[in-house]
Design a protein that fits this description.
With 522 residues, the chain is mostly helical. It has 24 helices and two strands.
Amino acid sequence: MPTGNYDEPMAADRTWTLALNTLFLSAATCAISLPLGTVLAWLLVRTDLPGRRAGLLAVGLMLFVPLYLQAAAWQAGFAVQGWWTLGWQTGVWLTGWAGAIWVHAMAALPWVALLVGAGFGLVEAELEEQALLDASAWKVFRKVTLPGAAPGIGLAALWVLIVTAGEMTVTDLFAVRTYAEELYTQFAVAPDLDSPPLAVLPGVLLTGALVLAGLAVCARCVPTARPLSHRPGLLFRLGRWRWPAAILAAAILVLLVGVPVGSLFHKAGIVVSRTDYGYARSWSPAKCLGTILASPVRYQREFGWSVLICALSGGTAAATGCAMAWAAVRSDQRRGNWWRLAPGAILVLLSLCLALPGPILGLGAIWLLNAPGWGVLNYLYDRSILAPWLVLSVRGLPLATLIMWHAFRSVPKELLDCAVLDGAGRLGRFWRVVLPNRLAALGVSWLGAFAVALADLAASILVVPPGMTTLSIRIFDLLHAGVEDRVAGLCLALLALFGATGAAIGWLAKRWRSSDRLHELA
């Protein structure tokens, strides 16, 4: 198993080791999350499994749970001072490489299920029905459905690679040395921007590979001109395997949702009382509820700064993504050669924003705003939220742009033609026709970027000015001392905020789909 050794004689050797550690962590995370996510996606999307809607809802809610909350939840159960560790005296289950791989895999599982499920959903129903005339359902699945979903499976693998390699939250908690974690540690210990903390070549190769993977992800997510089939795919009947499959799906969902969230609830309600035989631990629902409700008051400064910064960052990302998406969509209707390059340039920019490790984005913002001689920028860097605002806007830009790209691409051409006949110019068509018809999509874009910013830690932890602490940084600092009841209550309160954000996104997405159906009927 790879190890990161700080006593390597040469910085280049150490950096190669860190790069290999990063690749090993990403590969191991894929090895766990990809099979489980693929099985879960197929069962929930393409079979007659009982309780499919509830399963899809649980997976959808887990999409909004950030990595540091996942780490806190699993630590509350199976790390030092976890309820299972202390209650059953089994020793620490999650530590070192095992802990880092497992937490990353569980955090990636809902994303794998989403992307692979989308791949299964995009398989053309006509091909499956035609193949079903000549073969059994199982053979149709192996020869048609599964190969048709292969791009979604590959996209999920690339996504897991990018997200795992660019994060330092879990690796720092479990003392696993990767490239992103080393960047964060080196800057936290000795913040000298003039002397790079790592050798150049391994970092360039690793970052370049991540950017190429990000480019592939963005290219696959961009809408195409090819019309999609709106017919539902073939629903595979499980027959006698229906209930065993339901038990398997339920076990995966309990592992994904029930165990970590239940661990937080258990930890938040722990009551320690003194008896004649020592100390006894019990669980109190009233204590659990009181701890959760007291968290927004106890950590009101952190809640306030987080909501303010993330709301501004989400708005900036949504506005910028709106402009970029409209430029990309309009480029298809322009004759100039320069406009034809717009989608490619936007894809490259989005891949950079998506794939660069968080610490590199943070260091880039520090280099930009804290360089000697830039008096105004230096003042804003030290005394304002400009740096975290900028970094978190970059974090949310890919998602916001891709959402608006799909939204603008689906605007009925008839509406634009009618606007042209009425004398509307380019800006007039955008402000009076396109944007009013896509306000729900703009809300989804803003809330999606808000959730991404609220979930970030790797980039923002380096640039938050003194005297200001966000929720992600506060939880990350508290996790180093173990998950006690107040930390668990804070995590559950933040989970409620993410749940409310997810519910709002779902409501706006429903309105978006309803407006599209009305245009189709018209």
